[in-house]
Write a structure and sequence with these properties.
It is built from six helices and no strands. The chain has 106 residues and is an all-alpha fold. It folds into two domains: 57 residues, Orthogonal Bundle (434 Repressor (Amino-terminal Domain)); 45 residues, no CATH class.
Length: 106
C-alpha cells in the first residue's frame, strides 16, 4: 500500500519529522508532504525512492510483539521520573552488545 497512511505510520514509529524523513530517504520535504497528503501525487522517481526507503527500513524494524514486550517491561520498572529514566537508559545502553546465547541441541 503506497499511500499517506504508510508514510505517517512510519514517521510515528521512527518519531521523525517530514524533513528528517526526506533527508534520510534522499528526497525533498515536499515529496514527503505530497505523499502524506495525497496531493499532486506523481508516481515519479522521488516518490518511488521514498517508498522504497520506507519499505526497506520497515523490514529492518523489530516485530511489534517484541517492541511491545520491551515497552511493557520498561513501564513496569520505571517510576516516571526523569532521573530514573536516565538510569534505565544507561542500563539499556550498557547492554548494547548483549545477544542471546545459542544453545546446542543434543
Amino acid at each position: 500500500m503506497q499511500d499517506g497512511s504508510e508514510v505517517r505510520e512510519f514517521m510515528r514509529r521512527e518519531a521523525i519529522s517530514e524533513a528528517t524523513l526526506a533527508k534520510r530517504a534522499g528526497v525533498s520535504q515536499s515529496t514527503v508532504s505530497r505523499a502524506i497528503e495525497g496531493t499532486g501525487v506523481r508516481h515519479g522517481a522521488a516518490r518511488s525512492k521514498l517508498f522504497t526507503y520506507i519499505q526497506h527500513r520497515s523490514a529492518a524494524l523489530p516485530p511489534k510483539k517484541g517492541v511491545q514486550r520491551v515497552v511493557t517491561a520498561f513501564e513496569r520498572i520505571w517510576d516516571r521520573t526523569e532521573e530514573h529514566a536516565a538510569v534505565v537508559a544507561r542500563i539499556i545502553d550498557a547492554l548494547e552488545n548483549l545477544r542471546p546465547v545459542a544453545t546446542k541441541r543434543r
